[in-house]
Amino acid sequence: MDQPIRMKNNGQISITLNRKARVEPVTEPKEQTGDHEILREIEEQLNSLVGLNDVKHVIKEIYAWIIVNKKREEKGLKAGKQVLHMMFKGNPGTGKTTVARLIGKLFQKVGVLSKGHLIECERADLVGEYIGHTAQKTRDLIKKAMGGILFIDEAYSLGRGGEKDFGKEAIDTLVKHMEDKQHDFVLILAGYSREMDHFLALNPGLESRFPIIIEFPDYTVEQLMDIGKMMMKEKEYILSHEAEKKLREHLSFVKSSFIRNRFSNGRYVRNIIEKSIRAQAMRLLINNQFDRSELMTIRSQDLIFPDEH
């Protein structure tokens, strides 16, 4: 399997998560097994997720990078500067927030972050209504994120308004604190790949401040089916054979259609499941069918897709 982390000429690390790639089994460390219990705890949580096949490998490399630098310092050797701000590129529902939360836990356990908590925000949480308001709002969020991770979704929206837009003030404030307090918190910017690339092009020098870039591809149809089944299992529902076939065909159509660039992956499946459960409840109530099997089964007529009413 190709290494998912590639070093660019500017020293930046680029990571692509290939959901179809085979992940090499994790080998037990030769030293004391207790030394790496932290990593195994995080891997167990990742293994409970559908897809994300390369994330475990990526996190293991980041973990190794941190530990080896600590060992080098202990031996009096030069250690690489550990700036861990990151950029996550990909469509919604591909696991970006979940991975950010797990990374926060890992960094807290290995002593990189004091708390490891996740503060999620978007443009409206950062941008104010008058000069100076944006900087204060941004500083307040950074203060809340101290010791943890500040996760900004749809971060490209901060650069859409041009020079006079207050979003630029938010960017400037973030950049200043990324430098001044780079070891006190980790900043993760997330958003669509194309928009994030355009955002970086508008802000020279910004890309170099994010040494780790991870691209999250869309889930495959089978992975989306697995996600749906897991969601239903948690709620104690099952799909009938016909419903499963209908859902698979619909997901195949959606992924091959023009809207795939805005496909929301796991969120899309969750919306289908929630709407279908409500439709099933209405059907059972009208037909007065309340035996255990019917209460658990979602049938093809219950499936409600987002573009249907």
UniProtKB/TrEMBL annotation:
Family that this chain belongs to: Belongs to the CbxX/CfxQ family.
Entries under Gene3D superfamilies matching the protein: 1.10.8.60, P-loop containing nucleotide triphosphate hydrolases
Protein name: Stage V sporulation protein K
Signal peptide location: none
Lineage of origin: Bacteria, Bacillati, Bacillota, Bacilli, Bacillales
Taxonomic source organism: Caldibacillus thermoamylovorans
Keywords noted in UniProt: ATP-binding, Nucleotide-binding
Gene name of the record: spoVK
SUPFAM superfamilies linked: P-loop containing nucleoside triphosphate hydrolases (SSF52540)
Residue ranges of every copy of the AAA+ ATPase domain listed in the record: 82-220
One example GO MF annotation: ATP binding
